[in-house]
Fold these 3 entries.
Entry 1:
Amino acid sequence: MDLTTAEATPQGSGLPLAFHGTIIHSLDVDELEIIEDGMIVVGADGKIEALRKNVSKGEVNGIVSEAGYTPDVFPVKYLKRGEFLCPGFIDTHNHAPQWAQRGVGRGLVIMDWLNKTTFPHEAKFEDLEYAKRTYASCVSGFLKQGITTASYYGSKHSQASKILAEICLEKGQRAYVGKCNMNRNAPDWYRDLTAEASIKETRDFIAHLRKIDPEKSLVTPILTPRFAISCTHDVLAGLGKIAKENPDLPIQTHFNEAEQEIEITKELFPEFKNEADLYEHFNLLTERSILAHCIFVDEYEMGRLKELKCGVSHCPISNTTGGVFMVAPIREYLRRGIKVGLGTDSGGGYSSSIIDAMRQAFIVSNAQQTLTKGKDPSLSLKECFFLATLGGAQVCCLDDKIGNFTVGKEFDALEIHTEVTEQRSIITPIEDEDSSEIIWEKFLMSGDDRNIAKVYVKGKSVKV
Amino acid sequence: MDLTTAEATPQGSGLPLAFHGTIIHSLDVDELEIIEDGMIVVGADGKIEALRKNVSKGEVNGIVSEAGYTPDVFPVKYLKRGEFLCPGFIDTHNHAPQWAQRGVGRGLVIMDWLNKTTFPHEAKFEDLEYAKRTYASCVSGFLKQGITTASYYGSKHSQASKILAEICLEKGQRAYVGKCNMNRNAPDWYRDLTAEASIKETRDFIAHLRKIDPEKSLVTPILTPRFAISCTHDVLAGLGKIAKENPDLPIQTHFNEAEQEIEITKELFPEFKNEADLYEHFNLLTERSILAHCIFVDEYEMGRLKELKCGVSHCPISNTTGGVFMVAPIREYLRRGIKVGLGTDSGGGYSSSIIDAMRQAFIVSNAQQTLTKGKDPSLSLKECFFLATLGGAQVCCLDDKIGNFTVGKEFDALEIHTEVTEQRSIITPIEDEDSSEIIWEKFLMSGDDRNIAKVYVKGKSVKV
């Protein structure tokens, strides 16, 4: 193997590379850019070197040349009508061990669902062979569905969670991976047995992830207290200490998720008026915090989230399929400039698809509009698409790297094919008169993973 | 061809036939029967001749013999673990011409959506080649998704609607097909130009369908006033007259679908206090009436629906993706013994899948539980499954023929395969310890058309 070439194409996947055709991405929450006859050049390092609009095919060679490459021999992929590029989806809340329990136990309220369905299932990840098999299926399944970045909760097992991180690295998915901390309110057969062990395992887990991906090129450890109910003060304090020592570490937890959860948290931590104060006290609310659900958040707490620059992971499917129908005030978060992304919460919901999550985000925003008598208008599809891409990147503090096709960012992208074929027969057929926006709308509303023909992470094709 | 054999297997599809394995169907709204090691024998006429429980493989030949067939040579299909039979899905509200506009225009309130998105689209069915192509794709698409019976609105064009019926017959889908009556509040380029023409075309359409399927073996004409807003008194009276002359004809319309629609109806028909009185006056509320949506139905109207034995087509997707979030009081309908089925309302919603409709029925029932502070408890998955099968059959007055696997009914069934393969990689994986009920739950919550391996209508395999 010629090392020079290997260095020039570090992932061995045909980079550099260019695309010509329709390119669709979000510039801001309410600003969708649809580029017709666009051209995008991806460098050998997987970064976007050029993004141009209204490029005729005759102009392609000139742009290749301008970018410093040799025309004619440079690989350019031409997208046909009905095909377009969009940014990869970002799943800001995902319990990887729940891959094999998706949809089971819907209708149970949170603590029942944890004890009856989830804990017995997650406990199986003690078995590392089971973990390998299930996480391989999980990561492939999410990549196939266009999730180029996921923020994963592992199980409480640090060994299995290391396997999850290794599989992400091997399959080429960008991921935050956390060993789940939980040392109480869970059965003895599925919890960290002491606070010390919980923290020690976490430190060891972080060190392992830094070792396997020293550049944080794809995989980053994330602090993952399950939620305050399952952590003693010692564990929360220990994690806060790690966060202070490592200000680059992201943090994730569940936040004001359900009435039952909020009540129990207050009983366990009577010294705090609310969850914002609780997690802030333990140094767990930073601009790198990803807070899942955020249903019942009052004026004061919203102020803290904004001030501390925390991100909200909106999980509209699990919010409406547990024992109760709950709507997070997403319009209000957006109005205040609080960061918001989408989470499949696969396991807690039923679907592992961000496309489903976008549709459900749209539906629950209609509910919120009705419930607030119009004060909180519905989300548009453009806004839902933003949440699934650039919004998610902001929540993960990765918007300098991914989320849209700004020059200089890494190329995490999906190649969407909407033409009806034997394989892809369910999507709404494209009609002669359909604009690119209608084609995009048909994909969002009626497409699925079969319409995601290629998935790229850092320029590398990873579709499995 | 040997005519004797042809008569014995009238549809040329390998009947008679038996299945052995897990069989799941509804006996009543809250009664799901899961038959382990079941055996079902389907006769040459497509009817169920035997349904047996707990049959060991050694007993199969005895049952074949009992049913009057020759053991050993009789074809028995053995279902493996992870596979089961369930009744075909019944879609009680489906606008076939909207197949190619699914998902488009979501967020618009009803009259805007009709004028901007739907009418221009439906007008294309004037072109019979377009109709042939689009309806072929539509009927195949629905069959593929397990919809063995659909109640279709056609466009206003009787010719195109005849083509739809012919395609259903050719592809083997059981269907109600209606030429849509609409002679006002629609643009000149897309409406019946006179009441006389509207009625005359309808009579001609009915005669044609009776000619092509004289036994009503699969295709039945259905009276289809779009809704009162689009019909003058003359048209409603003319349709009511046809209904009186033909008491076997089913009838479908939209009923109390949206606040805007109800207001306009009251302006156009000030002589009626409500829509129940209006449609009843015109002889359009009978036990064969399928009323779509039924969102805002008061005590009086509920009484009429019950008394007149009308059926409700619940369309939870379109009810929540138009400009407003609306929840039909399904629990209350069930409590009163009013017939309820599910509709994809594909076009008005975004999905052509009854599986999606079941999930959304579950979700909006959670909303209704919250909105009524627990008075109307959520639907269980069992109830949602009932709505998609036996409930739909009741709404169509076809429950003597289809909807479950009662001996004597016609065999409309789906063969569900849940094993994860390259093709079917999104469904929640089945675990060793999963019961048949959990496998069924995983299919309902995370499966899609890829898990519907075979579709049978009247015993004939029709999967396309």
Entry 2:
Amino acid sequence: MILHIEKEELIFGINTVQRAMAVKSTLPVLEGIYICADAKGLQLICTDLSLGIQTFLACDIEEEGKVVLPGRLFAEIVRKLPDGDVDITIDDNLNVTIQCMGSRTKMKGLDPETFPDLAEVSDASSFTIAQPVLKDMIRQTIFAVATDETRPILTGALLEIQQNNLTMVALDGYRLALRKEALSAPSEEKQIVIPGKSLSEIGKLLDDDGDDVHIMSQDTHVMVEIKNTRVIARLLDGEFIKYRQIMPTDHHTRVQVAARDLFDSIDRASLMAREGKNNLVRFQISENKLILTSNSEMGDVYEEIPIAMEGQDLEIAFNARYFTDVLKIMDDETINLDFTTNISPCVVNPVEGDKFSYLVLPVRIY
Amino acid sequence: MILHIEKEELIFGINTVQRAMAVKSTLPVLEGIYICADAKGLQLICTDLSLGIQTFLACDIEEEGKVVLPGRLFAEIVRKLPDGDVDITIDDNLNVTIQCMGSRTKMKGLDPETFPDLAEVSDASSFTIAQPVLKDMIRQTIFAVATDETRPILTGALLEIQQNNLTMVALDGYRLALRKEALSAPSEEKQIVIPGKSLSEIGKLLDDDGDDVHIMSQDTHVMVEIKNTRVIARLLDGEFIKYRQIMPTDHHTRVQVAARDLFDSIDRASLMAREGKNNLVRFQISENKLILTSNSEMGDVYEEIPIAMEGQDLEIAFNARYFTDVLKIMDDETINLDFTTNISPCVVNPVEGDKFSYLVLPVRIY
């Protein structure tokens, strides 16, 4: 293989695929970057078997060939190269030379035949969505994905198409985040569960503008096509929680509050709550005031926020983090908090629209 | 105690003194911030017994008093307060209330009488220096302070006044960094050794502009006065290495090279050197070229840099980090490397001036 490529293009490609590279693996080849130059162009691939990323790069191929390079070292070397064109040559014994200006690095490649194939996903059932929209949907749900493995299905997010709406749902047993978007074109109904880690990496590959992405799925895998890049993620097996049955349909108390004020107050209260180990913040709702309190051996915090309220007074308590998490990702200035009783979930909604919804369980207080 | 203070002023004060706060101590009071409001104004103090910082803040004192507050929690609470004036009150039982807009925090203070006194340092022997100059002197030597404790005196930097020159020297047995400045006024000759950690914190308190600082020392302590802040550091006991005897006076090979090129090449070579564990980079100097090579099981790196040279050809090897460390802190575009033999130290100097000098030992190669 002999090829010439701009340093910046190569760095972009490495940064793209490296997200799927295994960090520590018993198979050294999974800690590598697969490089193949042939009639289709130059492609890089990384995979940790759960997630695979393939990208095509612009370059000048003088002689075809393929190899797997030790990923971390290759990436670091390329990032530190002088600015200019990079020449990469590989001989028949997989000896690789990377040359750029006065810098020349030689390293031993690994056998490309030992690199696992990525799963094939046909485009029989696909839909299209704008990059910033998908990025936003991921950002507003991923934080609620379960981090412990006791119920493996909850370590993923549900992606559901029903009646031309795309819904993403994540929940961990204590809170649930839901984000909905209308699709621009009719699409086959489906329910798939994408592992949180894979979804998070997909989110990082998406631009705030840029072309639409195509998403296609089969039984076991989903493929997301972003320009010259394909991300293939293994799906989680099993049935997701029937989330519609959990969502409360009614409320006895509605609070309208400035999201920023609420965040700042809970953030302060949680400093003291943290000292008390349980991270508990109490809400007292009455007379158009929300009073937040927390305490521990170290002392106590009292916070008063003006609100607009409808319905009954209420005293209820929450794990502070479940509130700060959601307030960080909501873009709305004013939000609604809907309560039923002090032992049933609170629903956090934007005042306008129904694209986002968040449900959080209270902590029982005596 | 009752006082009113601007949040930003209080945060500035906390940030200043917190650098001397003990992180984990058997004496809880050392993890605290001492606060005293009296006729002298409001002062904050932290000390870990080795380093002490005291600062005076502008505020409105309604009633005098003093207390020690749990430092980390107090600092976090103040940083997160709403923008505005902060009211702090302390009752006779050391119950502290911090109030700002709708936020009110209560906590229990510690007995201020248990807080250790800072050492007194008289201004009998003092000198004055501009903040940016002292900041620069610290930055250009501190990295060479020894990090292991086998020779405790080397964990500090020497500060020497001789013939109206202030010299700062740090060395760790493998390399030595020296920075010199002429003092604007005659000052008593002295040699003190300031612990690296204390010197580093002093460096962080200095501005790139701003008033001159006053430095005074006695047998056991040095005091640095920066505006309203006093830093008092315990000195290291013992005699520093006679560094003048180490500095080579002659050279057989002189290399003039662009600092940025040399840094980039060593940086790349060190990626491979790192894989080889010993971090070794070989220098080959001949024909107005500097060739750098490194190798490991993973492969090898070859770097070629144009230089101007005088004297003999040379092959010599170094620990890559000892070169990248110094190249990071030199501001000169072009530097001189002076060599004698491949088993004697290399001296790195700016082409212009003699304010800075760096000596590094080679690694023997066979």
Entry 3:
Amino acid sequence: MSATYDTLVAKLHRAHHLRSINGLLGWDEQVNLPPDSADLRGEQMAIMAELEHQAASDPAIGDALTTLEQQRETLSADQQVVVREARKDFDRVALLPADFVTEKARHSSAAYHAWTRCKPANDFASYAPFIAKHLDLAKREAALQGWADRPYDYMIDQHDPGFTAGTIGTLFSELKAGLVPLVQRITASPRQREVKPLRGFPVEAQAVFLREVTEKLGFNYRRGRIDVAPHPFCEGSGADVRLTTRYAPDEPLDSLFSSIHEAGHGMYEQGLPLADHATPLGQHAGMAMHESQSRMWENQVGRSRAVWHHFEPRYRELFGTALEGVSSDDLHLAVNAVQPTFIRVDSDEVHYNLHIILRFEIEQRLFSGELAVADLPDAWNALSEELMGSRPPDDQRGVLQDVHWSGGAFGYFPSYCLGNMIAAQLWAQAQRDLPELKTDFARGEFGRLLTWLRTNVHAHGRRYSALALVERVTGSPLSPRPLLAYLEERYATLYRV
Amino acid sequence: MSATYDTLVAKLHRAHHLRSINGLLGWDEQVNLPPDSADLRGEQMAIMAELEHQAASDPAIGDALTTLEQQRETLSADQQVVVREARKDFDRVALLPADFVTEKARHSSAAYHAWTRCKPANDFASYAPFIAKHLDLAKREAALQGWADRPYDYMIDQHDPGFTAGTIGTLFSELKAGLVPLVQRITASPRQREVKPLRGFPVEAQAVFLREVTEKLGFNYRRGRIDVAPHPFCEGSGADVRLTTRYAPDEPLDSLFSSIHEAGHGMYEQGLPLADHATPLGQHAGMAMHESQSRMWENQVGRSRAVWHHFEPRYRELFGTALEGVSSDDLHLAVNAVQPTFIRVDSDEVHYNLHIILRFEIEQRLFSGELAVADLPDAWNALSEELMGSRPPDDQRGVLQDVHWSGGAFGYFPSYCLGNMIAAQLWAQAQRDLPELKTDFARGEFGRLLTWLRTNVHAHGRRYSALALVERVTGSPLSPRPLLAYLEERYATLYRV
């Protein structure tokens, strides 16, 4: 290995560790921070953000990359991946003037506070200028990066390299065409009214159960932990992954499935090559791929009959009283309840995709200029009616519900639905490759699936884009058909439609 | 305020925040870190230590100080304090070559690992070279700082500015002369055998009780928290103070009094002027002063009759079963049990001072060259016999028991005993100034004492040295007599000697 390559890797290590410290400060803020200590944490994180930015935009990285790019033929295949991806990361940071970064950070903070005020007040008009300014910032950023003609593609590429509004649009149209009638069939089913509420699940026992489940699925608690936070999330890289959840006695499935979801993210991080965490060889292949891992464990695995065949006895042992009068079939139906809601984060896995398609269509129109910021609520409500059959009664359950735009995170929403598609396509392939999976699950064995994911997905880091990796593993380009087939199989059967 | 002064303060803020982040990483390591994540934390902390060192030794600080020192007459009294103390801090960091810092850090790590090996093996011979090397490093460091002729004074001054081996020696001789006979009287008392063990205290209820007690004493949980760690400690500044404790059902007084002790440290930090945490105006006046605050709340307050008069009903409510057959007098005796032990950290507040005097005498002889490292065990055992009447049966209960020397922390031990002296002298003054204290305590009111400490001690930050501050508050130079009087009053009465 050349001295220049070693320099590059050392610099990437430094940036990676600073990022990981900043991540830990953010985790601690959500999990541990005393209520009146927020000012201190704000100052600590501002300094760390500056140091992280300095390290990631260190001119020595740019110099090393230029040298290595000129001698590409001397580099191994792995080294070429590192140089290719590190160049992308470096330009993303280094091409933004410090002024611009400060302006965006300051505006994000102001917009977030505006959102926390405007959402409960249903006051879209006061929030609109903050979105407009973020839209302007996003376009300026795209121009600075050389994407002036395709600003929305630039936003998407930040989260999911290789995807464009065009590719996503094609995938989502086909998905929509199949999904809307399926949703209509399910929501018309009388089975919908048979879903029994689960109430009175002691929080301590919930914590015991979800720990047992996530550990058995394969999350490694020797390099991770789970704590309570206001919103579930997963922070950290595989060397130290912190999951969070929240508990309510009358929402036992919320904490359980959000924990399995976050553990899915965590198992992906834990499966990335540990020695390479600081370089693209050991980093995830975009948010859609990340989401595919969390969704597969949560939905395809976690909500399946086979898995509950294994876990149900223990569930009844812990929650016998609360489960009186709830049969195995009732439980399976509750775990797979499909019910329309205006709120994306409360949505079941069938409706969820429609919530995302709505946001994607809105964002596209915003960036093309076809839709003015002031007209967002009307567009939102009309699409909601078109896709899900009803209009939100107010903006806090409509256009104001999500935090994302307050941080300028346009182009992020599609990842969630793409993740569902990737999960379903990988899952179909895993079932073909490993016909014994259902038997495994029913016996409480998950190692075979995890090993398959480690080998086929995790081990590759950012070597392949998500699109290329899906095609490599499944032999076909990404398509919504496996997702539609999976939803049809599980839900049409369950709802007898 | 001049632009130069503003620059200085901004630089000090930066260094302070980096230090606070490093502190949080250390806290998280003890409290949260998953077992296999230690390597990552090591790398994170190494980078942060480097950044902290860079920030604290930033040449811009030195330049600003030089400019400000030349225009001292234009500075306010507060600004003069900042410049005086910041100069001291800056030189301590900036006068050490990076090579030396690295060598010391590397040796400390090696010595710590040697200590964890040698202590359980009773293998002093293998550990001795590590102490010898630390002694050499300490002398070199003192020389680099311009204290070549007084290396032990330099070590002391790092922890407790203003103290020297000479002043401490005088104080300790007088203390020893009074303490040794008192200890002999107490340990000869038949009351000693009446101490009843406290067993079977459920850990959950212990956590409830100590939280109630520390909150009532005045620790502000809106800017702090308490968690479980292998060893009790207090980390952070007043904007976010993290206490730790540990629980065992058969050691209820250990977790309770260590928590009160750490909360005492925490209340000092919380009492330092919040806006000035980054400058010496809002920082503590040395380890002895810090220890005086923790000891006063733990001992003078926490072990008093008046305080237990208030808390005992609640204690019995929580631990009724475990306290059956334990009278109020029994409880008071248990809380104030005096029993010889070879282990400093298990020692009662009477014997504790003898453990420190022993270490101080040893360290003095080591630095003067009178004692060779190889002869440490013999010297330790002989002093143990002289001061406490018996020799440790092995080195792990003797010279190998403490972690301090493995980190090169010579001159630190005296702080503990000086803290006891300061606590007693301040306490005597507080009682004179506030005759209603006992009545307050019996009613569960502690605000008057805390306000007195805030006004007389905390508010001053590093404006005065600990010695000067004690004299300012009590009208007399620091003396062991208040400590002897306090111990005599409490223990001679209790043990009827």
